[in-house]
Structure formats: structure tokens, C-alpha cells
Write a structure and sequence with these properties.
Number of helices of chain A: 4
Largest sheet of chain A: 5 strands, mixed, barrel
Number of strands of chain A: 6
Radius of gyration of chain A: 22 Å
Number of domains of chain B: 1
Distance between the termini of chain B: 42 Å
Strand content of chain A: 25-35%
Strand order of the largest sheet of chain A: 1-3-4-6-5
CATH architecture of the largest domain in chain A: Beta Barrel
Structural class of chain B: mainly alpha
Distance between the termini of chain A: 70 Å
CATH class of the largest domain in chain A: Mainly Beta
Shape of chain A: elongated
Helix content of chain B: over 70%
Oligomer: heterodimer
Order of helices and strands of chain B: HHHHHHHHH
Largest interface: A-B, 39 and 40 residues
Number of domains of chain A: 2
Number of strands of chain B: 0
Number of helices of chain B: 9
CATH superfamily of the largest domain in chain A: Nucleic acid-binding proteins
Helix content of chain A: 25-40%
Chain lengths: 145, 250
């Protein structure tokens, strides 16, 4: 490579590395804000702000879904590592909502540590399988009306 | 090594590239048509539905290939930008200009299919998580590259400005790729990885693999086709192009 081209290459690498470090530092500094939701341990430990509009996420604990009057529902989100919190919601749940499913809720955490949700979103994983295969290692899921 | 070096030197000649690229463009186009036809019919019509998502999971057969190729196209553009800035190769600038429309459409299609998929599964058309936001930044980079070239009248200045933007924009690619690992997002982790077997049975991932390869062939065909037109346009003053036109009257 001739010296002129080497100099140009060095300039561009300097530019890209510099811009890369800048973006990296900005993203690192904003780390907490880029996370879309608070995991259960942060809700339980008090790291999440009380009575502010936030998102929280976790897995729906087995046997915790209790339906109340009309559309109101109460369930527990857990990380299966000892941190649980209760969510209250009134509205239509997404189709993928079920026990053991990853769920994201948007709303406010009240002083009693109960999450008052205004919106419930379902998170799904990268595993896809046909229904007949799914029945082999998980209990059949009742989708009844 | 010698063959590669010779190929590299020959790339400096748009005339040589024009002469050899015709059959390749046709071959990639036919291959793309065959692969995408089989992949889409198989994936959208015959692959089994997902145990949780039912038929809405089929959007994966459009969403994943377009999202992958949108990022790959950007990486090719970044490489072309680097080659232009360091070696001042004319063909690199033409490639940079020719990739933009294709990459932009693929990014837009990936975002659109993602939104259509998000509504039935997540429960929302759009969520500002790290993956969706960084993908939106990719769309803005493509739009920016398109606009920048139109905005600068002098061709040489325009091409260098675009090359710098393309190269610096490469920073966004690892952010898109690792966004689902670095941050908590609603978007699930990657479906296909090079290191692990796919997390679905063959009758589900085979049509997806066909579509991914097919969309890469489409990218190659589209790039070569556009490049051939761009070469003729930019070299229209040269004697070889004028001779070509005179010997093939339309």
C-alpha cells in the first residue's frame, strides 16, 4: 500500500474508532434508559421509582392468575429467582398471555408494591415449534373461549 | 493470491466489469426467483403453524430475510465507502449509490412486517426497545445517504460525503445485532446463529433458510443490474460506451 493510501486509511480508521468510542460511551451512560423495562428484582428491591410511569417485565407465575369482575385480572410476575410482584390490570390481555409466559407491563408501582398496569404486552422467545411437537414436553395449553 | 490481486486491479475498470457482469446478473436473478418462490410457498403455505402464535408466526419468512439482508447490504456499502475513500475506485462509488434503494426498501419491509407481527403477538404495533429503535436508525441512515447524494450537485464531493456517512454508519450494525443481548428488550434474541443449531424443527427453518439465501441472490441481482445501468450512465462520454450503443441500436 502506498503512503498516501495508508494515510487516508489511518484518517478513516481514526474517524470510525473515535465515533465508535463516542457512541459506545453515550450508550453506556444511557444504559439504564435503554433497557425497556425493570426486571422483578429491581421492582422488589426498590430500585424502580414508585408512582412514576414505568415498564416492568417478568414471567407469569404458575397458578397466580386470578380473574376478578369483568375484565379485571391479577397475576404475579416472577424471575424464578425469588423476586415476585403482583400486577393488577383491567382490560384485554394479549393472545400469548398465559402462565409461564414472559410479560411486559406498563403502568405505576404503588406504595404497597403492587403494579397497577395500563398496558400488558407479551414477550415471546426465539423458539418456534409445531403444535404436535409442543404437546410432547409441555402440558397442552387450553385456548378455550 | 495472484488471482485475487488481478481481480482487484481489474475492478478498477468499469468497462471490464460491465463486460463480465451481464450473465451473473441474470443467473442471480433466476436463482433468486426460484429460491424465493419455493421458500415463500413452502413457508407461507405448508410449514406447520407455531404452537403459541399459530399462523401469525409465518411473518418470520419475510421478516427475518429482509432484516438480515438490510444489514448485510449496509455492510457491503460500508466496505464500498472505505474502498472509495482509500483507493478512489470509481466502481465502489457506483456500488454505494446502487445499494441505497434496495437496502432502504428491505429495511422498510423488515420494520413493516415487524409491526404487523408485533400487533398479534406482543399486543403493540411499535415499542421503543433497543432492537426496533436501532433498526429505525438504519432506515434513517439509508434515507440520509439517498438525500445526501441528491443534495450535493458536484458528483465527486457527493460521493465522498456519502462514503464517510456510510463508513461511520457502520457503527450501528453491531448495535442492531447485539441490542437484544446488551439490553432488556421486548424483541426476542436471534432466530439464526452461526454457532448453534436452529431453535425450530427442519420443516420450519428450511423454508426460512431458502428465503434467506434467495434474498441474498436478489440483492446480488439487483446490485449488478443497477451497477450496469450506472456504469453506462457515468461512462456515457467514453468511446467504448458510444461504440456499444452504436452497435446495438435500440
Amino acid at each position: 500500500m502506498n503512503p498516501k493510501r495508508r494515510a487516508r486509511l489511518a484518517t478513516i480508521l481514526f474517524l470510525v474508532v473515535g465515533a465508535g468510542i463516542t457512541v459506545g460511551l453515550v450508550l453506556y451512560a444511557l444504559n439504564e434508559n435503554i433497557n425497556l423495562f425493570y426486571p422483578p428484582d429491581q421492582i422488589v428491591s426498590g430500585a424502580a421509582p414508585v408512582d412514576a410511569q414505568i415498564r416492568a417485565g417478568g414471567m407469569v407465575r404458575d397458578g397466580s392468575v386470578a380473574r376478578g369482575e369483568e375484565l379485571s385480572v391479577e397475576f404475579v410476575l416472577t424471575d424464578y429467582q425469588g423476586s415476585d410482584f403482583t400486577v393488577r390490570y383491567s382490560g384485554i390481555l394479549p393472545d400469548l398471555f398465559r402462565e409461564g409466559q414472559g410479560i411486559l407491563v406498563r403502568g405505576r408501582l404503588d406504595a404497597q408494591g403492587v403494579f397497577q398496569a395500563q398496558e400488558v404486552l407479551a414477550k415471546h422467545d426465539e423458539n418456534y415449534m409445531p403444535p404436535e411437537l409442543a404437546g410432547m414436553h409441555t402440558a397442552p395449553v387450553s385456548d378455550g373461549p | 493470491m495472484g488471482v485475487l490481486k488481478e481481480f482487484w486491479h481489474r475492478l478498477g475498470s468499469p468497462r471490464w466489469f460491465y463486460a463480465i457482469s451481464g450473465p451473473w446478473a441474470v443467473a442471480f436473478g433466476l436463482l433468486a426467483a426460484a429460491l424465493l418462490l419455493v421458500g415463500c410457498v413452502w413457508g407461507l403455505g405448508f410449514a406447520p403453524p407455531d404452537y403459541q402464535q399459530g399462523n401469525s408466526f409465518r411473518i418470520i419468512y419475510v421478516h427475518v430475510p429482509t432484516a438480515i439482508v438490510a444489514q448485510s447490504a449496509y455492510m457491503v456499502m460500508g466496505a464500498a465507502g472505505l474502498i472509495l475513500l482509500v483507493w478512489r475506485m470509481k466502481l465502489a462509488d457506483m456500488a454505494l449509490a446502487c445499494i441505497v434503494p434496495f437496502g432502504m426498501s428491505m429495511t422498510a419491509l423488515a420494520l413493516f412486517t415487524g409491526a404487523v407481527w408485533g400487533k398479534p403477538t406482543w399486543g403493540a404495533w411499535w415499542v421503543w426497545d433497543a432492537r426496533t429503535t436501532s433498526m429505525l436508525v438504519l432506515l434513517f441512515l439509508y434515507i440520509g445517504l439517498y438525500a445526501l447524494r441528491q443534495a450535493i450537485p458536484r458528483e465527486e464531493t457527493a460521493s465522498r460525503a456519502c462514503a464517510v456517512l456510510a463508513v461511520v454508519g457502520m457503527i450501528n450494525i453491531p448495535i442492531i445485532k447485539y441490542s437484544v443481548d446488551w439490553w432488556l428488550t421486548l424483541h426476542q434474541p436471534a432466530t439464526f446463529t452461526l454457532t448453534e443449531p436452529p431453535s425450530m424443527p427442519p420443516e420450519m427453518w428450511l423454508p426460512l433458510a431458502l428465503n434467506v439465501v434467495g434474498v441474498y441472490c436478489l440483492f446480488a441481482a439487483n446490485l449488478l443490474g443497477r451497477l450496469r445501468v450506472e456504469i453506462l450512465r457515468r461512462e456515457s462520454g467514453t468511446s467504448w460506451v458510444q461504440q456499444l450503443v452504436r452497435s446495438n441500436p435500440a
